[in-house]
Amino acid sequence: MIFQLNQVWGNLISSLVLTSGDNHAAVTAVNASMIPEICGANFLPSADAAEALQRQPYEKIQMLVGIYLACMAAAALIVAIGVDSMKRYDTGRAVSGMGGIEMLMATLKLLVEPNQLMMITIMVFTGLQQAFFGADFTASFVSCAIGTGTVGYVMLTFGIADALGCVVTGYIAKVTGRIPLICGATVIHLCLLATLLLWRPQAHQAYVMFIIAILWGLCDSVWLVQINAFFGILFPGREEAAFSNFRLWESVGYIIAYIISPHLRTSSKTYVLAATMIVGVLFYFIVEFRDKKVKLSDNAKASSKGVDNKAFNVE
């Protein structure tokens, strides 16, 4: 939750800076009658960005860079002075002691396991959907139809929903389990993608974008929290390597999204995202089934051994 708050403060700062003063670049340059034709699913960054997205004034960019650099310097200083050394917490407990090379080897070894291989698609999807929302949705819908000044507020809304979702879905999972949450996130995310394909945005429909941001943030919290938690259960004793794999393939999703972003229309990228999610969720359910089957088998063996021991002890 705390990590997700970076989106709240970062986007609040950017919106306040970009909308301050008489900044004509904060509003869309697209004629209102052309917004449904250019923006939304039809948007192609390499062809439409120059017309639809105005360049921000140089002084605004300088101000943003200065604020973010100051935040980075303050964060580094706080960590250096205020955070205790990890060695303090290593005393009296077993630690992995793995160095960078050992961690890399453990991460690569885990890649040959069937469960890990089947989880790759959903890990890539988590990165794809975050990059798509942060780059493609904000450009093709928010900036194009309304203006760059609104992007920060939409992303701020996404960040709040994401942060709250991380807490709330954790409690819900204790009651319902993981699978209903994954099913719910899948259905909602598919509906959101269908909306992006069918909806033709208008300048006066900013509220729709905020609703999409809230729902997308809640879905993102489910993907991040529940898939991370599942990795901890799936690979007991090898959590560090498992989480490293998660971040590795999530980053691959980011890379793929940013590589294809300028060259494909938003509609094409939406189809790619939907296909990746469907395949990833199907493989996830297969892994869940395999894991439950193994646990049932282990429990049956343990029960059988317990019965044998009791029979042996009867005089």
From TrEMBL:
GO terms for molecular function: potassium channel regulator activity. The keyword Membrane applies. SUPFAM superfamilies: MFS general substrate transporter. Keywords: Membrane, Transmembrane, Transmembrane helix. Gene3D superfamilies: MFS general substrate transporter like domains (1.20.1250.20). Signal peptide: none annotated. GO terms for cellular component: plasma membrane; striated muscle dense body. It is found in: Membrane. The chain crosses the membrane at residues 61-83, 179-199, 206-235, 270-287. Pfam families: UNC-93. It is a multi-pass membrane protein. One of its GO terms (biological process) is regulation of potassium ion transport. It comes from the Eukaryota. InterPro entries: Ion_channel_UNC-93, MFS_trans_sf, UNC-93_regulatory. Belongs to the unc-93 family. This is UNC93-like protein. It comes from Leptosia nina.
